[in-house]
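[job 0412] stage=fold_complex status=start
inputs:
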Amino acid sequence: MQSQSAHTLRLLPLALYPSHDDETVSLSVLRKACRTWEIDFFPAWVRTQTWKVLLGYLSPAKRTWQETVEKRRAEYLRFMTDFSSEAHTAAPTGNILNQIYKDLVRCSDVDADFYDAPVLWPLETLGTPDAGTRHAVLERLESVNAEYANCAERDRPRIRADSNAPLRYVDRQWHSMFRILYLYAVLNPSVGYIQGMNEVLHVFLRAAFRTRDLQILDTPAQDAELLGIGKTCYAEADAFWCFSLLMGELRELYDFGHSDASTFAAMRQLTDASPASPQLRNNGMAHALFSFSERLHMLDSRLADFLDEHGLDPRLPYYSLRWLACVYATEFSLDGVMLLWDVLFAETVQGQTDRHGKIAMLLDVGCAMLLHIRGQLYQAAVPSTDRLSMPSFPGSYDSPRDEHPPLDTFQRIMQLLQSYPENNVRTILGVAQGIQQHAAAQHTQATLPRDAVARRAPQKPACRASRGTPLQERLAATVQKSLHTPPLRAASFPPPPPDPSSPMSPIGSGASFLRKYTEAFQSSDAAASMSKASTNLAAKALAWRSRPSRSVSDQYAFTTPKEAHEHAVDSPQLPAPSVVDGPEDRDAYKTPLHKATAECDSLSQAPSVGPIHLTLPSMRAAAELGIVTAPGSDAASATPPLAKPSGLSRCIPSGTRDPPKPLPSVPLPGVERGTKSHRGTLDSTNSSGNGPAAEHLNALLAEFKSTEWIKDK
Amino acid sequence: MSGIVSFKLVLLGESSVGKSSIALRFVKDQFDDFRESTIGAAFLTQTVRRDEDTTVKLEIWDTAGQERYKSLAPMYYRNAHCAIVVYDITEEESLEKAKGWIRELQRHADANIVIALVGNKLDLGDTRRMISTEDGAKYAESEGLMFMETSAKTPTNITELFDAITKKLPLDRGMGAAQKRQAGTNAAAATQQGRGTAPVQLNAAPPRQEDACGC
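[job 0412] stage=fold_complex status=done
writing structure:
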């Protein structure tokens, strides 16, 4: 069993390769690979593909990929057509165009290699109208922005005719970014474009950029096109969808308060609907920062008090806001950010506990960043004259400081936190994962009696019923209903921006249904699919209203990625447990033991992870190229040693479909140690560690122990 | 009153008018043609010798200019002793935004705050100027603000700007000691702790600034 798991991880590229004969990708294997930082060991396309699946752009059912990708890429171009022309986007978008341009042009000078890199669009595959479409947005920019209108010729896209190549339409990366951000802002008017989004999008396109640069050689054109190898022109559409999905999940981080009346009114409505937790529900960034602070207090109250005392509590938008609003894209190196995002994407919106999984992860990282440099933070409070001669002695920040106003301390700490000194993201991630496990363990402990009951047999059917077909049907009905609601006079477009996320949405019955439904299903993954669906709804509704002549049924016969996923789950021939992202899967992550058990469980069930047949020429070619790794001895030497899945040795024998039972003899991590947070967690991960994470945790444990005296003092 | 006196200064204004560039020129005497946009806010400090016995330390909050970040601004300008509101002389719109900021400061910031209106990008004045010096100066005069046109690039008037502001600051109101900041942040924190009280709503509007200097 142990070797099979290792096998599976090592063969991740095969599992993700489009034309390999695995039918489905196991989400639990993907998540595990992300959480144990394995993605770094594989070629670049494995990461982009993993992200696409985990974000829900692609379903785990591989047979749907080709269709999905074609449809989505075509859809993207259609949006572009619909929203490029001035007819549909009047005054308000001028500001958006200007703002995005300003931000991109500033970045492009700093990082010209990427921003100015050419993107080639073969005209014969896209057709001239599409090329014209992409150009149209830039023409609009030209009409509203004098600077762009006057810019050098090299900044403009153009048709290139090389002597021995077909006509090609040449863009630059920043043109791609420009279109994506613009389109996202137009399609999500309640969010719009917010500075910082460009940094987030940049990471997606960078990842795609790396994939493009892989050699293609014998990889079949279809596979290469699907994966985005060799050509950048599809990266734009793919990045748009991935970016939209991520923004949908992290939407609350871009709500900075109640700056305008409409947001406030929308919040009112929500508050009226459920008076229980009015402020906490829709408070966006302010709430996230507040949770950040709370969590830090829980983990290390002394550090939290110290920061608070110096006016640097993370709930103040001084340094923490940028960390979150850019999803850490500006705090670490690109490699580091990608690794961090792997771990982030392994979390679902509905996390292990009752928290938003992704945001909880982001907050854990933030806490880890503070904890990790707390020695330096304490040190910053020591008056500068004493600093050289004294070790980091936390008591001294209380010393008289007439000569040194506390401003110095504030300033020094801000300097540290504004350009974070530690660039080894692995260390930070190790700590963050420790915190995460601790929180999960505490949650498990808190809810253990209820869970223990719930885990017995009837759980699964009930749960399936609530998030399976009925939801699917009702959602589909909602989509249909809202689409068949008569448009609000196409002529009046665009005044009240239709946005299903907002209760004020003019989509009407559909929107209120969605809202109600979202609330009802907040405790399930349905919430995630709703937010994704709602993004699509907004887009569809807008597109429809702007183009009333199209046949509705034709144009809107679509499923969201999540729906496709659920279809996959529901179809009988697929091994449901290995792909389902359901509560049993989530439970599995509550403790390493449960995780291992579930994994072991699903492995035994999933036909998809059987022996790999290297019969396909494409696979052989890919393996030779190193795009995928062939199994066997070559693979063993080619890939770095993998995690020892130690938990597996203790797991329940395979073949049973009973939910994993907690084994009473194995202590839950962190639980017994009560609130001695990281220490307890780190200790316990020794015994149930998973790969590099465990090693780092061990190293950190040593470090933490050596600094623990600070706390005890 | 001697030694170091600290003041809190906030930079406000529309996106990409050059707030960060002004700050960077003043603090590090550097200039980049392109600077990445500020997310949230950035914090810098610089000390200025005001006279023989007094050094003034300016604690600078360089804020994000985008409209969407506007609701956060009170977190940065609260308790500020001085504000530099920047516009871009090549962009008409930016002066309107600057006026909006000034109105907000007059309503919600400390009643005695020293405000300077600054038209930046003077280096482009010959070729692309859209706002005349008179327009800016006239508005500043009517509102009782300091006024200056600057270029962070060349650099022109940057040191002069900060010198002039420093001279204007009443020394007895600076943060000579810890308590002031302490009080300020704790209050901010306490309000935040009230979960969801928007920072915007914190301040009961202080009386409009009447005694502003007419420089």
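[job 0412] summary: Chain B touches chain A through 47 residues (CB under 8 Å).
[job 0412] exit 0
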